[in-house]
Amino acid sequence: MRKLLVLALVGLAAQLVDGALGMAYGLTSSTLLLLAGIAPAAASASVHLAEVGTTLAAGVAHWRFGNVDWRVVRRIAVPGALGAFAGATFLSALSTAAAAPWMAAILFTLGAYLLVRFARPLRTERRAGRLRGRFLSPLGLVAGFVDATGGGGWGPVATPALLVSGRLEPRKVIGSVDTAEFLVAGAASVGFLIGLGSEGFLLPMVLALLAGGLIAAPVAAWLIRLVPAQLLGAVVGGVIVLTNARTLMHALDLDGGVRPVGYALLALAWGVAVAFALRALLRARHARTVVAAARGATPSRREVNTEPPRQQVAVDSESVR
């Protein structure tokens, strides 16, 4: 019973992060499950099965809010599903000893990416034109494969790539990526079912993760109004990097004298990233205040407590996930 409660808290924490950042449910929950001693393939399989429920709810909500570009969904969902199925099959074929460092390396890389991404000011400008299939299809394929083999990564890979293109509204980027993830999570679950069998899915774990995620959804809506997404992204990225660094150092057979130095350097990099994120946040708040003053208006509490417009538009739609 205590273990199920811990798993529910894992799902709750992952959903809080996802609700604030618009990504990283699988990334956060897989990292915490590995830290709890769950086998890599079982962790990824259970997370993806739980995501079938959370992404379905998110997709319906995004559709109701008008946040979905169905052309983009079609172009990334099908290749993403193929990549996820292939990734699940690949991870299922690996032994636990081989899968642990592989999965930790992917999670470490994605965590480092979160650190870099949220330490810098985020782009918000738009460009003319629409996204092409020759860009969307490979993106979906790669994001799906990374998502299944790493236990998470669909959002961290697909969302920034679409946002950087500048050819789609931020709210539609997040809504379309989340809606497509339903098919990706389903395909990954089928791949794990074939590769691991039904015993590969720990049903109590899945239900606990799902319950925690559903409970956290309304809390995430409240949390994002208080905790700036840019600062939270840098903090979460550092946690993911440090927790997966332990597995990587063990796999590389680094001696005891090297590990403390490695942890110290990673912690230093984490602190620098958080400082840069805080600086970018304060600058964004100042710019918002200046613009509001020029217009003769007082910025609202929501404008002051959130930094990039991209995160603002994701609040209402992502909070239900």
TrEMBL record:
The chain crosses the membrane at residues 32-60, 72-93, 99-116, 201-224, 231-249, 261-282. This is Probable membrane transporter protein. Keywords: Cell membrane, Membrane, Transmembrane, Transmembrane helix. It comes from Salinispora tropica (strain ATCC BAA-916 / DSM 44818 / JCM 13857 / NBRC 105044 / CNB-440). PANTHER family: MEMBRANE TRANSPORTER PROTEIN MJ0441-RELATED, MEMBRANE TRANSPORTER PROTEIN YTNM-RELATED. Residues 298-321 are annotated as: Disordered. It is found in: Cell membrane; Membrane. One of its GO terms (cellular component) is plasma membrane. It comes from the Bacteria. It is a multi-pass membrane protein. Belongs to the 4-toluene sulfonate uptake permease (TSUP) (TC 2.A.102) family. Its main location: membrane.
